[in-house]
């Protein structure tokens, strides 16, 4: 029976518990496919493999991407979920393997589940190739293998030796492969393609660190493949002299060039100078001449050589400035990069920041899809004056249960791991009463589960044994979970890109599908519940990363130096000048040698100063007339093992079950441990409750015991901010705003016990947890000294007003920056010790910052205007979680004055 989303919603509206929760329904009609021809002919084995796999024609974006990749260009494909992006990189890889029996390819996925899923797809494609007509030939020795933390030790040597397609994740590349590159010499020597799937997921600190890993990958490839000389011959200058144990050399000095452009001069001799930091990075290298020549005789699919395929590759698509003009000069010999991404505002810019390379952007989506209904569902009011709504988790459980019992295969996405577990528990409680035979047909899925448990859930979901799954964004990405009919989004998932990724997990071919967004009690969710048209018409956000972040570089430059000495070439006069403002092509970066300063960007010199001063890196004098400036890692340890890509602190935290011999049931980021496994916390795993009985900061573990309880816990955080320096300022209508460097301190000071189902607060408990302190980027603005008296005359509380305005601005900032509310910190104070005045601060919650506060600074009037509209439009009387209350407020949301916040925001806007 075909699922009818409109009929299902109509049935919900006639049920007894319905109370006008359905606030909007958006119909997206079915879309027909569009095809286009390839520009090159594919080799016979590849064309035969595609035909055997049922691919007779290519969608427009597939053909554009394949044509561009075969022409030797780096490519990013940013199209919708389930649009067939996998072929965009599998076809060029297969073509490389067919033409070169030694060629290799590296596939990078953000999760192990995605890597396993891709392995299955590759093996199916390879099986089709082997089953093709013998006259067409076959792909010789095209073995693919996953290589990650779950790979048995006994299999690793065989994989290194035999696999031509290596499927892994950035974490394993960072900690297991690059530091051991001599074991992978043959692989790196013949590496032709690097595939970066789900590239939009690499943002924030994680994305900034992955960008450094990809630069380290390019360095290692250059060790084995060489670099292009000014003549443009790839591999003309091998970098064997960079291998550990070879001759090494010296240090750098920085200076600012008069006239505003940022320049660095690296001199011989002399110590690192500390008086300049450049402002912007160069663009990267150009396309590969060798690969362009290889692509000239590639072919289209089809026995007659005329399979319809794609149009001319896009020249940057909607953002020509981000990808930049294609330089005529060659890029270094080495692999080409192909990335796929959800639809974001800056796919080209994001790719270039990730890799340091220019790119061709493909966004013209030619794939079909069935009719889709996207509904907005807002929990009903329990108390309109307080704007207290029925629990969104309870609403989600009701909808999830209704879908599962109706035979609709459903995935429910939640914002937090604890909510995924709660939703599973609520659903099983309902099914126990109404359909007990379905209790084992639902499960939870999230990061942190042991590998065997994750694989089992993935397998059962794909095979249809599970009818529903509650998940965090661990299943948001492109894993094939079979045909699902509906997706529930319990809360807006912080970005438009994630919204469509999650909604797009439902839909089988041209079959209709349903997506329901359930509004939470927070400013952003309620903003969209009141402005649904804005949700569907809103442009996608910019993915924000900062690979020049000095704190990130100080973690990865030792790793790079451990892999091969850091190197900067010098000119004949002993000086090497690099102009970041102008940017760089291949000649700037690589003529005559590898330039790590150009590769890692403007933060290189400042990071190197700290690393030299701390003795982590040592400068060695150059040898001979052509000696480069070089730095070596001084210690005997293994620096990558202490750097976690997904955690700013770089360490892991184990959760041990005391009732099961202290077996580890999950592993957490150290930075999130104080919030999730603090003493007294209720910790949920597969719907089961555990009570945290011990939190050991030094040993990096928490001990839990099974517990029967009807409540969960929510931590409370206290923050403080001190100004280091102002970097920029702007004059607004009635105030001055600033962007600068600050030192932020945060500490978990307590937690709240909240009853399940009713969401009633049972009590608040104090804690004395270790604090964290880091330097980051913040925006702040002045408030006039006369404002407290003016508000007092109106019977309003100034302190409560700035506190409420701070909360509301933080809650609405993700509307403009691709981030989550939990990525942002804030502070409001009537008298800050560094300014002696009233201030409101908003800062990045990561060391060094990743661009969130900077985006807010650039769009400050728009931020204030949206915040004012949100607070004024909220139906509550005194402020609520939908407008000015914050779930992480260290002062338990006291004091707050909604009306004072409205007047302050109007004053800021000059109204």
Which residue ranges are poorly predicted, with pLDDT under 50 across at least 5 consecutive positions?
Answer: 229-332, 576-592
How far apart lie the N and C ends? 57 Å
Q: How much of the polypeptide forms β-strand, as a percent range?
A: 15-25%
Structural class: alpha/beta
What do the pLDDT scores average to? 81
The largest sheet has its strands arranged as: 1-10-17-16-13-15-14
For the biggest sheet, the summary is: 7 strands, mixed
Count of helices? 28
Radius of gyration over C-alpha positions, nearest whole angstrom: 28 Å
Q: Please bin the fraction of helical residues.
A: 25-40%
| Tertiary shape | globular
**Strand tally:** 32
Key phrases:
911 residues, alpha/beta, 7-stranded parallel beta sheet, 32 strands
What do you see in this structure?
This protein has 911 residues and is an alpha/beta fold. The chain has 28 helices and 32 strands. It has a 7-stranded mixed sheet with strand order 1-10-17-16-13-15-14, sandwiched between helices. Strands 4-5-3-6-8-2-9 form a 7-stranded parallel sheet, sandwiched between helices. Strands 27, 28, 29, 30, 31 and 32 form a 6-stranded antiparallel sheet that branches. Helix 2 crosses helix 5, helix 25 packs across helix 28 and helix 27 runs antiparallel to helix 28. The longest helix has 22 residues. It starts with a helix and ends with a helix. About 13% of the residues have low confidence.
């Amino acid at each position: 029976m075909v699922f009818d989303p409109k009929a299902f919603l109509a049935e919900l509206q006639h049920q007894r518990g319905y109370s006008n929760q359905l606030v909007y329904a958006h119909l997206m009609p079915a879309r027909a496919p569009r095809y286009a021809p390839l520009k090159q002919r594919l080799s016979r084995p590849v064309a035969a493999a595609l035909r055997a796999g049922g691919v007779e024609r290519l969608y427009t974006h597939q053909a554009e991407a394949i044509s561009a990749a075969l022409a030797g260009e780096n490519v990013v494909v940013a199209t919708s979920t389930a649009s067939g992006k996998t072929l965009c990189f599998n076809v060029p890889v297969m073509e490389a393997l067919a033409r070169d029996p030694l060629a290799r390819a590296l596939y990078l996925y953000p999760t192990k589940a995605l890597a396993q899923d891709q392995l299955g797809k590759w093996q199916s494609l390879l099986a089709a190739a082997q089953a093709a007509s013998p006259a067409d030939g076959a792909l010789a020795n095209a073995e693919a293998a996953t290589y990650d933390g779950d790979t048995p030790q006994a299999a690793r040597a065989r994989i290194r030796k035999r696999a031509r397609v290596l499927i892994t994740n950035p974490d394993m590349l960072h900690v297991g492969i690059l530091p051991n590159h001599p074991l992978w010499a043959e692989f790196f020597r013949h590496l032709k393609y690097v595939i970066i799937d789900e590239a939009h997921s690499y943002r924030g600190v994680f994305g900034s660190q992955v960008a450094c890993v990809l630069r380290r990958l390019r360095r290692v490839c250059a060790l084995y493949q060489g670099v292009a000389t000014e003549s443009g011959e790839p591999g003309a200058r091998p970098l064997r002299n960079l291998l550990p144990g070879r001759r090494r050399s010296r240090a750098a000095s920085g200076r600012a060039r008069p006239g505003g452009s940022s320049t660095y001069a690296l001199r011989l001799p002399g110590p690192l100078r500390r008086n300049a930091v450049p402002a912007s990075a160069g663009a990267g290298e150009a396309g590969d001449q060798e690969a362009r020549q290889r692509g000239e005789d590639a072919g289209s699919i089809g026995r007659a050589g005329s399979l319809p395929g794609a149009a001319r590759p896009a020249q940057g698509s909607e953002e020509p400035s981000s990808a930049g003009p294609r330089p005529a000069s060659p890029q270094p010999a080495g692999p080409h990069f192909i990335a796929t991404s959800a639809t974001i505002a800056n796919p080209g810019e994001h790719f270039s920041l990730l890799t340091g390379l220019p790119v061709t952007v493909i966004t013209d989506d030619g794939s079909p899809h069935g009719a889709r209904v996207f509904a907005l569902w807002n929990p009903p009011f329990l108390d309109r004056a307080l704007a207290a709504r029925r629990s969104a988790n309870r609403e989600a459980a009701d909808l999830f249960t209704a879908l599962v019992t109706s035979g609709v295969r459903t995935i429910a996405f939640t914002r937090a791991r604890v909510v995924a577990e709660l939703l599973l528990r609520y659903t099983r409680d309902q099914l126990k009463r109404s359909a007990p035979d379905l209790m084992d047909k639902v499960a939870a899925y999230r990061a942190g589960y042991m590998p065997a448990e994750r694989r089992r859930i993935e397998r059962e979901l794909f095979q249809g044994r599970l009818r529903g799954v509650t998940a965090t964004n661990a299943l948001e990405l492109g894993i094939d979970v079979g045909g699902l009919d509906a997706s529930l989004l319990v809360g807006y998932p912080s970005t438009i890109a994630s919204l469509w990724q999650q909604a797009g997990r439902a839909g089988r071919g041209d079959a209709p599908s349903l997506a329901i967004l359930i509004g939470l009690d927070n400013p952003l969710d309620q903003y969209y519940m009141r402005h649904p048209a804005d949700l569907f018409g809103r442009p996608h956000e910019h993915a924000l990363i900062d690979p020049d972040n000095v704190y990130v570089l100080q973690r990865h430059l030792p790793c790079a130096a451990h892999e091969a000495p850091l190197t900067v070439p010098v000119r004949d006069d002993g000086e090497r000048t690099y102009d970041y403002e102008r940017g760089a092509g291949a000649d700037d970066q690589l003529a005559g040698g590898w330039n790590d300063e150009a590769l890692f960007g403007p933060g290189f010199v400042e990071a190197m100063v700290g690393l030299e001063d701390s003795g982590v890196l040592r400068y060695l004098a150059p040898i001979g007339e052509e000696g480069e400036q070089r730095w070596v890692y001084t210690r005997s340890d293994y620096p990558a093992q202490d750097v976690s890509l997904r955690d700013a602190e770089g360490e892991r935290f184990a959760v041990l079950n005391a009732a099961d011999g202290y077996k580890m049931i999950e592993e957490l980021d150290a930075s999130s441990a104080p919030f999730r496994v603090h003493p007294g916390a209720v910790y949920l795993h597969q719907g089961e409750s555990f009570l945290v009985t011990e939190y050991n900061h030094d040993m990096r573990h928490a001990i839990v015991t099974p517990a029967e309880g009807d409540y969960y816990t929510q931590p409370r955080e206290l923050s403080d901010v001190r100004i280091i320096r102002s970097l920029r300022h702007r004059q607004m209508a009635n105030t001055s705003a600033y962007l600068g460097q600050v030192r932020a301190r945060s500490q978990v000071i307590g937690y709240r016990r909240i009853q399940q189902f009713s969401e009633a607060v049972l009590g608040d408990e104090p804690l004395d947890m270790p604090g964290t302190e880091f330097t980051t980027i913040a925006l702040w603005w002045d408030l006039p000294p006369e404002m407290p008296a003016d508000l007092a005359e109106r019977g309003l509380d100034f302190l409560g007003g700035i506190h409420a305005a701070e909360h509301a601005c933080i809650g609405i900032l993700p509307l403009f920056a691709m981030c989550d509310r939990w990525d942002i910190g804030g502070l409001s104070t009537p008298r800050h010790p560094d300014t002696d005045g009233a201030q409101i601060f908003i800062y990045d919650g990561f060391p060094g910052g990743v661009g969130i506060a900077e985006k807010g600074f650039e769009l400050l009037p728009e931020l204030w205007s949206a915040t004012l509209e949100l607070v004024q439009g909220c139906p509550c009387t005194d402020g609520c979680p939908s407008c000015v209350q914050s779930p992480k407020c260290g002062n338990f949301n006291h004091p707050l004055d909604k009306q004072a916040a409205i007047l302050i925001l109007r004053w800021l806007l000059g109204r």
